[in-house]
Amino acid sequence: MDIKKLLSQMSLTEKLGELSQYNMGVLSTTETGDLTGPANDLKLTKEELAVVGSVLGYSSAEGTKKMQDEHIKNHPHGIPLLFMQDIIHGYRTNYPIPLGMGATFDPNLMEECARMSAKEAAVNGLHVTFNPMVDLARDARWGRCMETTGEDPYLNSLMSAAQVRGYQSDMNKEYSIAACVKHYAAYGAAEAGRDYNTVDVSERSLRDYYLPAYKAAVDAGVEMVMSSFNLVNGVPSTGNKWLLDDVLRKEWGFDKILISDYNAVYEMYDHGYAKDAKDCAEKAINAGMDIEMMTTCYLKEIPALIEEGKVSMETVDKAVLRVLDLKNRLGLFENPYYYADKEKADKIVFCDEHRALARLAGEKSCVLLKNDNNVLPLNEHSKTVALIGPFIEEPMIGGWPGAGSRNEVVTPLTGVKNLLKDAKILTAKGCNGTLKEQPDYKMIKQAVKCAKKAESVVLVLGEHDLMAGEGKSKTDINITPAQVELCKAVCKANKNTAVFIYTGRPLVLSEINDIAPAIAIIWQPGTENGNVLANMAFGKANFSGKLPMTFPRAVGQVPIYYNFYTTGRPNHEHDLPIAYRSAYQDERNSPLYPFGYGLSYAKFEISDPVLSSNPLKRGETLTASVVVKNVSDVDGEETVQLYIKDCYASLARPIKELKGFKKVNLKAGEETTICFEISEKQLEFFTANNVFEAENGDFKVFISNNSNVKTFATFKLI
To answer: Which one is catalytic: 86, 135, 208, 261?
Structure first.
């Protein structure tokens, strides 16, 4: 298709339609062709609806075909729709939430899961997923922690690029769909962890921490970028010309589609940045925003702005060409249905192969925090097992499940029954799992009765998946009093109790940690939920996950993260409160569990790092190596992590930063040498010169299995 020729034939209304996106309810009409409620609410005419360029949230092979047929028939130039949807952790076969996938420290597995999602989405008529979500998160109060892969820019960048590759496959493989990275930028830095809240960070923090994962997606060839809801240093991202045009377009070279988040163009009015809808339209499109989602500022206001000379036709045409270009490269002008095929969908979607991958991802995401006296794994030959907790029969799938159905989720009870076919399974809820729930001692008494009768207990605690996600911020991330009292009573009744925590964010587990002999984080593992729990609890799979976010001792420590800056009066070496040091009176500085932490049924020892040379000369590399040994009688997988500290620089540097990691599988008693190559590139940061560069000086190298590592080797960069 000659899209430039097509553009020359389009009216202004048709062009602005291409830059407008509405959900399926808006585009639907009655059998007589009358507009439905949503379209009337937006005051859209039939002529405007006929030229809308994309639709949000509609997916089924038959449904998309029908809507596409109607749209092409009514459009003056027969331009097909783009179908887009939030596919965050699987289309219908749901693997773990992104935070859980971050815990795998496995970009290859993330890519494979994204590829599976793309396949299921494509056969149901979708062209674009609003993913990866790569907002760096340091505040566990923020509800959308569950959508990100964690607090570290290096890990997030690897996972960002992996998802783009998985969805898009360079846009040349069967069942590829376009990815849209979000939310640009720094959405995860919302003040007080409150969703949609203000972000106020320095350019230095943006460059070093918040922007890298978006750039990784751009470098991987992502087709779309979605702006964030929030202000960034006083300017809404949606109309932030420095962010969208100067950095994203000019500096990074991104010349594809920019789309606003839901209603975000008009929300510039609510921010107090624009005086009315017309001002919103002017600021958004002149900042580089191509598509507005769920508002009518472009359709209704840009014609007047063009007449007044405040918006140029050239600006509009550039935006329209980007949209037409994606449709053209997807082949929609020749085949508007893309890969939509009900017969293929019936075979591919939710197939055994996809469920097996989702189960594997779930197992790889689980993090073992504590295992005193080797309580885990529990004995799979137990004759009587108690399954206790508020979520034992909950079909928790995880937020943003796409087309995933809770009816298809394996519950913990079903999963344990699937595995332990000959065991007697005793059950009790013990509490209801509600927000701020207080103890019900009658329910707890029933749980204790079950625990006393069982050989082993699986105690399922945490937060319901409906308590995490967009608009689900919290001031209190403690385990509820009801769950704490339940844990105390059950662990006292049966010392062979293992606690499994469902969550979409770091929680305060200090009280649980003092009570329970064994604790594991299971996140929100998706479709295979119960099978994952059973396999982990009874040793059919081994733990290998690592925390992608720091778990605090108390809510008052939040935001807490591993790559912090020291102060002129540091306290991190001592941790316990010392007068006139940077410390709390009532709590230690250190987290309960640090970033990168996670145990296994195997036990590993890692030697001190050895460097191949010192100094490191510019343009050259050095090798840092350690010996990793499995000192147990169990085979296992360890994630060996490289951290580097820049000891002094033109600007203060973090206490340490993740710069690499490698996964190694070792049989019982086996050892191997792991090597990391260190180059000048890994030492770069956004310096006082406002550029990325490495500065001469001293550096420390830490290699361990979590970020709380003290031993190091040193080198100089010259």
So the answer is: 261
